[in-house]
Records
---
Amino acid sequence: MGTRILVTGALGQIGTELVEALAEKYGLGNVIATDVRESDNCRSLDVMDAEGILSLVEGEEITEIYHLAALLSATGEKNPELCWKVNVDGLENVIAAAKQHDCRLFAPSSIAVFGPDCPSIAPQVTPLNPATVYGKTKVVGEQLAMTSDVDMRGLRYPGLISYKAPAGGGTTDYAVEIFHAALAEGHYTCFVREDTQLPMMYMDDAIRATLEIMDVPAEKLGNARGGYNIAGCSFTAGELVASIQRHLPDFTCSYVPDIRQKYADSWPDDIDDDVARSEWGWAPKYDLDAMVDAMFTGLRS
Ligand code: NAD
Ligand code: AKB
């Protein structure tokens, strides 16, 4: 039996594209997409259902799990208890099944592990004192990767930008919503300030990084394996607007910061990804303008 894959949270922003990429690599029949939401081509699985995960892993002879089910920062701060349950208890359930059936596991981390005390360019190793519950759950996830006795790997994804599925309740969602508003209305009201700078990444780079890290032999991965820093492109909201105006010169943006400004302010401006570059050859392909061009090509097609 070859590689058999379970994806949790498969209907989300990343899952929508990762399932496609995994199906291309391993064959559609070898990828079992699941989510707590109902949809065609996706089985129902709540990651808080430990027995349900175990029986799916056993019944489908799963060898690799991509665990994407989570609540993101903005949704998580509205319901911190549920965020902890889904993100930490859910992950523990997945780890238990992976351990019992000797599965390899990918579980993403986030730039949300960093807190206000982090340098503006976040190093790989720095104290992790996140300001959000979501960030705290991601720190626990990274720690579990190092202590769980499972081949478990993670990436500290920046804010991800894509056109195939909507962003799922995070702080970096403005960088996705802005494209839809620009095309539909010619205007966007942005919920962070114009000078807010955050690490971001085009989804193609994120999917490639995910496939690449799972292909690296375990012995090549060091102490960052629970959450490698990976940089894509870092820009302010104002710089994003200027890049969009290359395509839509009449596009306007106003700035009305809400509570998400506070979460954005607690995260670094940029990411130092030297460790990922040297340990497994990570390199992004999309800078700001290339990402914006790809977004317009995708949204218009
Ligand atoms: P998303 O919100 O778009 O998707 C998450 C999916 O999980 C949703 O389809 C949701 O229905 C599902 N889900 C929620 N609760 C569940 C439960 N109890 N059981 C099963 N499924 C459940 O999120 P995403 O952007 O695809 O993120 C996937 C992972 O990547 C998360 O761990 C997230 O923290 C991480 N991440 C994402 C970004 C980003 O910018 N998208 C950045 C950093 C890290
Ligand atoms: C969020 O904004 O919550 C996510 C993330 C950076 O983890 N996009």
---
Amino acid sequence: MTKILLTGATGYIGSHTWLALVDAGFEVVGVDDFSNSAPAVLPRIARLSGREPVFERLDVGDTAALSALVARERIDAAVHFAASKAVGESMEQPLAYFRNNLGGLISTAQALQANGVHCFVFSSSATVYGTPEALPIPESAPLSTANPYGLTKLHGEQLLRELERCDPRWRIAYLRYFNPVGAHESGDIGEDPRGTPNNLMPYVAQVAIGRRERLQVFGGDYPTPDGTGVRDYVHVMDLAEGHVAALRRLLDGADSMTVNLGTGRGHSVLEVVRAYERASGRRVPYDIAPRRPGDVAACYADVGLAARLLGWRARRDLAAMCEDSWRWQSKNPQGYA
Ligand code: WQD
């Protein structure tokens, strides 16, 4: 069986991709340092996947340890999720973000290269598009970033493209995520941000379950149908299945590819609030607050390339995203704690 290394394996997207890979017949070796995830994920992966997880706690910045694991486990390909991902935090700690995200990427690539592994999936982000000039956003759109987190994704891509140019053995899928939300249908794994959630849906979920009083809607005067921000929310299991499709193409010998992973549809903040109220049967009270610095009015993906290159399209709609998020939140009111 083909064996896949997942870095950041117990994180939100990593844990869901773990299940999708096992479901698709791959063997998985997970690594994580638990800096932004919980060990409690592992027994749930065991129960949901029906097999004991192969996992090692390590910092991907420890190249020697990671290289030894890649050699021992005879890894065929890797998906690199391990990175810090909070925009606001990145502006408070830019150097920590550069070191962790870019240093971790370089170290992971070194560990793979040392063992002759050149098949690589990089977790990138729609944040590399900055303020879009046109919608939907194609992969050919101009790239720019306005915060250190976004810069690490943009420079991560550039660093890997240069690596490919110098060493054509590398074949890399650059997957640009739009807004991942939701949870596995079991409700046993899901998004569990530490502290106050930066992102919309986990915050809405915590209001619905009663952990928080009210949602602050950041801006009601955007040039959008209802004045609130529009985003391309994509179900985390669709996203996970997109990674499986990309790995299959690379392992079949496909060339490197850069692909948007989104639905191609935008929803406003208030549409998400109403969908969540319908899914949960709970009220989500909110106030219209000032715009959040750095936010764009609207952002959603051109998904044509994902369909053509990966044979992948997102299948789950906003109602399913909210229903699955609510099942996770109501079964785990305090997350994994
Ligand atoms: C969505 C919409 C907010 C919270 C960021 C990163 C991106 C990726 C996903 C990591 C916006 C509004 C939010 C709240 C609100 N992260 N909002 N009240 O900013 O599109 O993308 O997260 O990979 O790289 O940039 O996502 O969920 O923070 O915001 O009104 O309490 O919800 O203004 O319109 P965003 P988000």
